Amino acid sequence: MTANAVFIHHPDALNYRFNDHHPFNPLRLTLTFDLLKACSALEPGQIITPSTADLAQIAKIHREDYIDAVMGLSGQFPPDAWVRQAERYGLQTEDTPFFQGMHASAAAIAGGSIHAAEAVMSGQAEHAFHMAGGLHHAFPDRGAGFCIYNDAAIAIAQIRERYDARVLYIDTDVHHGDGVQWIFYNDPNVCTYSIHETGKFLFPGSGFVSEKGDQEGFGACYNMPVEPYTEDDSWLECFAESIEKIAAAFRPDIIISQHGCDAHAFDPLSHIHCSMRIYQEMPRIIHRLAHDYANGRWVAIGGGGYDIWRVVPRAWSLIWLEMTGHPIAAALEQTGANLPLPQQWLERWSTQSPEGIPPLWLDQTASWAPMPRRETITMNNRAVKQVAIQDL
Fewer CB within 10 Å of terminal CB in the chain, N or C? Predict the structure, then answer.
């Protein structure tokens, strides 16, 4: 019997931590787990522990010498020969420094995304959520942007090889999903879509509307770069209209969506001014598209998100609540509805948070200072959207 949804988690994903001062903090996984359990939304029978990705699976995307470098730099005291090579492989930067246990934790995350994809493609489950995944900046020959192994690309490669299925990859992280895009840039059967803050101002400096794919893959790559300080209405207008047309034109066999939640106004690493509303609405839209075009097959993975207290737990929990049809998701869809977070969760974590944790699922934006140039930003985003989907 097919399950509605499965929750994929490998405990070694909690070891994916660069250092104590790095913004990529796996505590956000624990906070989200605890929030879902506090609202009785996650049962033990829904949780699956996946196998770690093996070297052959990782090598579907990453070069052998890069994998060797990751493994060589993963010990407590890496040999000097590997340390001298670290910069060559993007593993000695401020963003992506090598760390002890790097290979094991990154392989566990890759294994989680592989398992999520296999669960859905094999019919074990209609939907799967792997919140530790979404390391979309890694390239075949180097790490970048906090990402060691590109778990999304590895999972997509497995789907393509084993099932010959058409994959729509939707990336909602505020940073362009560059690694996945370039890896499948020539593949007409993998359509990549990314909505993000324009690369004119934000890492990785790519994701422009002119990037449309190459060779046989031309026309299977779409980017929706938005202006800094974009707010909810403009973000959702751009996302809803563009992804609806792309899904209708591409008609995927499965949707894999990456849910970095760093376009929130509280996030310290971007300039977008959205609220929790977009993290309620985007999973709802993707869920519907999966049923409209892919027989319900939907894999959701995590990604960025650096306000780990006020944003990430709520945003990632909303994905699972939508995916499972939980009553909280249904209640939040009602006009003007908002609900309190579980009191026991707030009491447990509020004393540890450096900022006050919002008490409700959705933000109370009436108290937020209005953004200047709102109309100009909206009009600029509309113009870019029209260019992005003009061929559809």
Answer: N
Neighbouring CB atoms inside 10 A of 30's CB total 14
Q: What is the pTM of this model?
A: 0.98
pLDDT digits (tens, 9 = 90+) for 76-87: 999 999 999 999
Alpha carbon of residue 90 to chain centroid: 21
Q: Which of 136, 70, 79, 80 is nearest to 101 (CA)?
A: 70
8 A C-beta contact, residue 310 and residue 267: no
Instruction: List CB contacts of 340: < 8 A, sequence separation 6 or more.
Output: 359, 360, 361
What are 366's two structure tokens? 């009436």
Spatial CA neighbour of 365 closest among 261, 260, 249, 233: 233
Q: What are the strands, taking DSSP E only, across the chain? A: 3-8, 47-48, 125-130, 167-171, 190-197, 221-226, 254-258, 298-301
Residues identified as active-site: 137
DSSP three-state, residue 211 = coil
pLDDT 10s digits, 27-60: 999 999 999 999 999 999 999 999 999 999 999 9
In the structure, how many helices (H) and strands (E) does the chain have? 13, 8
Q: What CA–CA distance (Å, rounded) separates 104 from 74? A: 8
Q: What one-letter code names the amino acid at 151? A: D
Task: State the alpha helices, DSSP H only, in the chain.
Answer: 27-38, 55-58, 64-72, 80-85, 102-121, 151-163, 178-183, 232-250, 277-293, 312-324, 327-333, 343-349, 374-388
Q: Check residue 196 and give its pLDDT.
A: 98
